[in-house]
């Protein structure tokens, strides 16, 4: 049997377990019949499971009339006098073939098992490598995600810090602005209160009965309590721009300091006198003027100004004019300067009056 005629595994197992039983049965043919033409009766056990190829291998080739000529009577008989066709045919031995098939099947089975084991081992290694790679990717992704979250957290904290700093700065700016507004409002309210009191005082003076002066009236007034010391300090320690504005209280028979200012410019003084001109009230003014000489020296002469608006009653003019000479002695000044228009009060006019500049 060649390798191409190898039966299946199940057929080989059946052959090993139950070998074929092939025998010659029936009546013995006569010697006159050719052995090749004698009928052969074959009994095959398990005929349903044995293929024709196995049967041919077990029985062997059968001579036919066309392939083998009839033998002579003498040649057809064997040495013991029995014709070969009458002798029982021996069973063909297939032990070697069966053993070769079994060994080859075992070898193939072993080879397949080895290949399967190798494939399983390769798959296990591949799965392990994929698992390790997956763990590494998972760890890398987790590190990347942690870094991203940490970066976002830091950015959020930085933005929160910037927003908090901006809010604090804005709150401080608002606080300072509100404080400045409060100060400005308080200063403005103080000015309004002062102006209101001044207007009330001016109204009282306008509504007061006019003083009728006679020739025998005394025009010598007492200085307000502490006024003499204030005038002396003004003369000794005063600097350019220091100003005293004074008024006569005829009913009290005294001269009072109505306003004392430091660093007042001539423009501010002119504006203040304009307020008195609107209500027709005269005033005395002591003002220290700062003058720089050509040789570099700086002097501080004191100007005694008698402000006398044109639209005031004659009695008030007399009331403020008569005590002027005595006040010059009290204030230790050489002369006084009459002023009826506040717009005329400027540096040039004052320096001309003081003799510091030629007219």
TrEMBL record:
> Which residue intervals are annotated with compositional bias (Polar residues) in the record?
1-12
* GO function term, MF aspect, one: Arp2/3 complex binding
Might you report a single GO cellular component term? cortical actin cytoskeleton
Q: Name one GO biological process term.
A: actin filament debranching
Q: Where is the ADF-H domain?
A: 218-355
Q: Where is the composition biased (Low complexity)?
A: 29-40, 64-75
Recite the UniProt keywords alphabetically. Answer: Coiled coil
Name the coiled-coil region(s): 154-205
Q: Which family does it belong to?
A: Belongs to the actin-binding proteins ADF family. GMF subfamily.
Which PANTHER family does the entry mention?
Answer: GLIA MATURATION FACTOR, GLIAL FACTOR NATURATION FACTOR
* Name of the molecule in the record: ADF-H domain-containing protein
Q: Per the UniProt entry, what species is this protein from, by scientific name?
A: Calcidiscus leptoporus
